[in-house]
């Protein structure tokens, strides 16, 4: 059996409820479900710290040059040991590579798997 219609909980509003006991004018906006697990929330926090703190420190430590070939353009900060293989989000596990060296390193890691 359907529920009886009720009026908005906001004082003085005679409209029918839509959501959370309030009418469409007073109900909070709908939010999408959060599908982020606790594990992913930790990863995202580590990623933000990597982008804000670790990456600039690694670039400065390596003097804005690729540690493999010495290139100074198109630099990227890479994990020495990939996160998927047990690496960490710390400065000790960061190195500065140019795009070419980073692509080669990634290809070698994929061949090993």
Describe this structure in words.
This protein is of the alpha+beta class. It has a domain at 62-113. The protein has helices at 38-61, 99-112, and strands spanning 75-79, 94-98. A two-stranded antiparallel sheet has the order 1-2. The chain is elongated and about 75 Å long. The termini are far apart. The mean pLDDT is 88.
Topology:
Layout: H1 38-61, E1 75-79, E2 94-98, H2 99-112
Antiparallel strand pairs: 1-2
Describe the structure in brief.
The chain is of the alpha+beta class and 113 residues long. The chain has helices at 38-61, 99-112; strands at residues 75-79, 94-98.
- Report the total helices: 2
Helix content: 25-40%
Biggest sheet details: 2 strands, antiparallel
Instruction: Count all strands and give the number.
Output: 2
Descriptive tags:
alpha+beta, 2 helices, 2 strands
């Amino acid at each position: 059996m359907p529920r009886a219609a009720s009026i908005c909980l906001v004082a003085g509003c005679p409209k029918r409820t839509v959501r959370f006991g309030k009418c469409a004018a007073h109900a909070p906006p709908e939010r999408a479900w959060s599908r982020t697990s606790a594990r992913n929330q930790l990863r995202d926090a580590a990623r933000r710290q990597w982008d804000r703190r670790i990456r600039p420190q690694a670039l400065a430590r390596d003097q804005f040059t690729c540690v493999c070939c010495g290139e100074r353009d198109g630099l990227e900060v890479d994990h020495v040991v990939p996160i998927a293989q047990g690496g960490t989000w710390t400065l000790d596990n960061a190195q500065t590579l140019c795009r070419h060296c980073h692509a080669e390193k990634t290809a070698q890691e994929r061949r090993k798997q």
